[in-house]
Design a protein that fits this description.
This protein is mainly α. Helices cover 88% and strands 0% of the residues.
Length: 137
Amino acid sequence: MTNSTKNKLQELYQSDDYLWLQETIQLLKIKEFESLDIDSLIEELEGLGRSEFNKVRSLSRQIIIHLLLLEYWEQEYEQNHRHWQAEIIAFRDDLSHGLTTTLKNKIIPELDSIYDVAVKFNCLIKLILNQGKYFLG
């Protein structure tokens, strides 16, 4: 029985990952560990960890982008600063809900790289806007 359940789960993982997840949860709840599709479960857990880290990285980048907008975008400041401030508040709130000690320790070494990407983003947007003004005006 366990081999057929395991094979069924392995096939299900390829065709319907949501149903695979539901059935895996049921097996865990009833402690049917020998019937689990362990390889796929490991793959999903690793993916969950990557996803959580990427979420923290993305929110951190968005916060830095908007802080840079507030600090350095003089021409657009009056029209956009309230929106940028609201975005920072929202991103910080989202980050505070997902930031664990482990993720915080993992993101800290990445902050220089995240900052560099945020600066490049701001420079690129500024260049695009300036070119648009040149071509439009």
